[in-house]
Amino acid sequence: MEFLLTMESNHLVERPPWLEDEPEIVGLLNLFITRLDDKSQEVRRRSLSIKLSPVKMKKLFKNNDDSDRTWLLLKSLERVVLTITENGRRGLYEPVYHGAMIRLLSGKEDKAEKILRNWLNRPVNVPYPEQWKTAVLNAVERGHDIFNSWDLLAQRPQRVSGKSAVEVVRAFLSIADHLKEGLTLRQLSSRCFWGQSKYLDSKEEFVQQLYPDLLIQPRPVVVNVYLPQAISDVLFIENQDTYIHVLAGGLATSETTAIVYMAGFKGAAGRIRNAEGVSIHLHGQSHVASRDLFLKWWIKACQCNWALWFWGDLDFSGFMILKSLRGVFGDVQAWPDGYTRMLDLLNKAEGHSAKFGNKEAQMDPGTTGCTFSDQVLLPALRSMGIFIDQEAIAG
Asked: How far apart are the C-alpha atoms of 222 and 264, rounded to whole Å?
């Protein structure tokens, strides 16, 4: 049997033997603990109360002999773990428990909570943010004088599935072992966070704030390119299947068009035009004659008066990519040959809704700076309320 100190003396309180036979009372007591676990430390100090109702205690409100027994047993917990306040405004013929308010024992809520947790086998559930702060504080006390950003770390709890707050704090502290190695963010993440190379993808700014001296090697963006013998224009394509389809002759392009595939928003990364930030892979049928000029143009080592085109999905995300590309490469325009065909499908309502295409989170770019996009394509997209993937005409 399990025992705890009573409220009034040092005598021990035994778990009531009848509790197992009263599921409604057990449910009521569990509700207190559940509500306590859901509250912050500040809110938990306030007195929680539960109003008795048929919803919470259906058996009690049947108003029979069993109801009387349940009420007497509940009353037996008064001044032990509960404070019960009867409803002075109940109707003349309503039972005494109608609308009664139940609270943890007034003035001794903490002790009452301990008893209930023991009876119900419900240990204290410390909220994760509090676990995190404790783990950070313990690390400070152990002398981990690694950086001067303890407050920032304590205020920004980070989670890893299946790992405790202590383990995750230690993982962030282990970044200090790699400050000068020049790892990529994914290499660093893999070494410090149990092989999860993508864990830090959305946390780069946070990590740099924790470790201002951390040297992170930019991860080169892989770019696939087909080069003609002579170049007059460059076509950026959003999707891989379409890139392959165009190279196979599935959609006519000029014999002097260089074709580039960069996997969506990766092409809009600012580092992509730095030699260290890009890894360009030439298609096997590319012409070597134009390679050097193209590579120089790419890293802005020379200027070329080439027309620049973009072709992607006819959706808001596609135009966000176009808008971003214009910020990196200059006067990039929506490719008329591709978008005109997609516009025909759009006008025939042969597209898909945002919900069906899993595109509900896409944001309208407003304007892109491309006249064809801003005056023709985007207005049509907004008017029709549907989207077209470019594979619909090239795949």
From this structure: 12
Q: Please state the φ and ψ torsions of residue 337, each to the nearest 5 degrees.
A: -60, -40
User: Cα 12 to chain center, whole Å?
Assistant: 48
Predicted model pTM? 0.56
Residues 257 and 329 in one domain: yes
**Is residue 166 located within the same domain as residue 114?**
no
Measured in whole angstroms, the distance separating CA 124 from the mean position of its chain's CA atoms is 27
Q: For tokens 């309320």, name the residue.
A: 385
Residue 277: both structure tokens together: 């930030």
- Among 217, 245, 277, identify where a domain stops: 217
H helices, E strands: number in the chain: 15, 13
| Tokens coding 135 | 């783990």
Q: Give the strand order in the sheet containing 82-85.
A: 49-51, 101-104, 82-85
Residue 285's domain comprises 221-392
Angle, CA of 235, 238 and 239, to the nearest 5°: 120
Residue with tokens 């730095």: 274
Cα distance between residue 68 and residue 74, in whole Å? 10
Residue indicated by tokens 């224009």: 233
Domain match, 178 and 315 both = no
CA distance 208 to 197: 17
Q: Is the pLDDT of residue 12 over 60?
A: no
Give, in order, the Cα–Cα distances in Å from 261 to each of 108, 215, 226, 227, 280: 68, 29, 9, 12, 10
Q: Give the DSSP letter string of 273-305.
A: GSGGGEEEEE-TT--GGGHHHHHHHHTTSS---
% of residues, the chain, pLDDT over 90? 46
Tell me the pLDDT tens digit for each residue of 65-74: 888 898 999 9
Average pLDDT over residues 21-48: 76
Q: Please check whether residues 225 and 316 belong to one and the same domain.
A: yes
Residue position matching structure tokens 């808008």: 323
Cα distance between residue 60 and residue 219, in whole Å: 66
User: Last residue of a domain, which of 190, 217, 244?
Assistant: 217
